[in-house]
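To the wet lab folks,

You asked to see what we're planning to order before we commit. Fair enough. Below is the target structure as tokens, and below that is the sequence we designed to fit it. If anything looks off to you, flag it before the synthesis order goes out.
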């Protein structure tokens, strides 16, 4: 009998150690993932020629620290505005973040959108 209880105790200790190890690995993976900055290129995702508005967006994951390329986004928005007959584009109103993939732990994928106002209408 003492041999059996010893085996049970050792198995319990091993189980506790494995749970602790698993938790440590999970925390390390989350910390490494959270610390990774990722460059994001914004894409034109909407807008209105008649309103002179271009919407530029990017997505990022739960543990990403996005680094949006705002200068490139402004150039892309200006190019779109120029194709519509305007001279330039200026960002306005900040950004809007919308969860695209909710989970029990939070949002695994977020869409971030910035609006650009076309300026200098050549048609007037």
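Sequence we intend to order:
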């Amino acid at each position: 009998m003492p041999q059996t209880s010893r085996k049970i105790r050792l198995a319990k200790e091993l189980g506790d150690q494995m749970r602790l190890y698993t938790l440590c690995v999970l925390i390390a993976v989350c910390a490494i993932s959270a610390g990774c900055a990722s460059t994001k290129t914004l894409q034109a995702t909407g807008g209105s020629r008649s309103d002179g508005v271009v919407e530029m967006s990017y997505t990022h994951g739960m543990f990403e620290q996005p680094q949006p390329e705002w200068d490139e986004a402004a150039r892309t928005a200006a190019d779109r505005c120029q194709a519509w007959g305007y001279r330039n584009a200026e960002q306005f109103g900040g950004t809007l973040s919308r969860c695209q993939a909710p989970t029990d732990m939070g949002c695994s994928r977020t869409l971030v959108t910035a609006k650009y106002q076309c300026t200098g209408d050549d048609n007037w």
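Structural context that might help your review: Helices lie at 2-34, 70-83. The CA atoms of residues 50 and 66 lie 32 Å apart.

Thanks,
Computational group
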